[in-house]
Amino acid sequence: MLYAYDDETKTTSWSNFPVTFVERAGLNLADLTDEQKTAALAVLEALLSDEAYATVVGIMNGDQYLLENSNSTETSLGQYYIAFFGDPSDTTAWEVQVGGHHLGINASLDGSTDAITFAPTHLGVQPAVYTDESGNEVQPFDGIYTDAFAFFDSLTAEQQATLTSGDVSMCAPGDTCDFSTGSGLTGADLTDEQKQLLLELMANWVGMADGETTAAALAEIEATLDTTVIAWSGETTYDMSTGDGINFSISGPNVYIAFQAQQGSAGADVDGVSTSGWGHVHTIYRDPTNDYAGSVTQQAATGGMGGALGDGGTPPSNG
């Protein structure tokens, strides 16, 4: 599970495709003993905030739910890998990578500055709501949806019209991106309160660790927020019982986030459970100032397919 810090595998092993299409780095948690798996999850728990850890565990358990309850033939459902790039250190740079179909965390840690960055990262969910083994209802993206609609609802009718007339962009793993902003609502169009709500939404990806790291990352984004463009399509009310979900993108000099409802179950159907639209979401976070995801090696790893969000994470030749 230990790679050199600059090993090119780091740039090729994160994706929103299933593990059967894009090989992940490191050890498969499914191959570990219970004690080893507990230790691996303890790394994640120590790295992430309580809220982010709950989201990640909810994502992973959702894949396990699909494995046990859906009619999917995808054999890699529920498989997640962990790898270290560089020796874990409190003085030099190293990285924790955790990946599976609906999760691709790249956490770069710089021991000399205590800085942590999460770009590029993929968070996805399918289904959006499920019942765990204890009978509890789990909704991993509820916090993200709540923040997204808090921002949307804060806008005036005129601002909402500008937002929804914009171009929602997608820049997935494997894509070589120019991070063009397109049209939409800009940070300069927002009030101070609206800007804060937008930053709180972005914190779901940018600030998954401690408060100090989150504040530092958001401060960099806030410095160029006036030229950051937000676009939105789909539903305008947080009601997963109707419609096909939402799509939005946030693109600026220091941040790129894409959120897209997948219009298809990718074969993971469960009776009475939505596994499309609201029930199947892929998201991407990348940092235009510090992005290795568009490398030639990443292109090669995905066969040039780019891992487009809109295809449900499955190459066209496989449905």
TrEMBL record:
<dbReference type="Pfam" id="PF12006">
    <property type="entry name" value="DUF3500"/>
</dbReference>
<protein>
    <submittedName>
        <fullName>Uncharacterized protein DUF3500</fullName>
    </submittedName>
</protein>
<dbReference type="InterPro" id="IPR021889">
    <property type="entry name" value="DUF3500"/>
</dbReference>
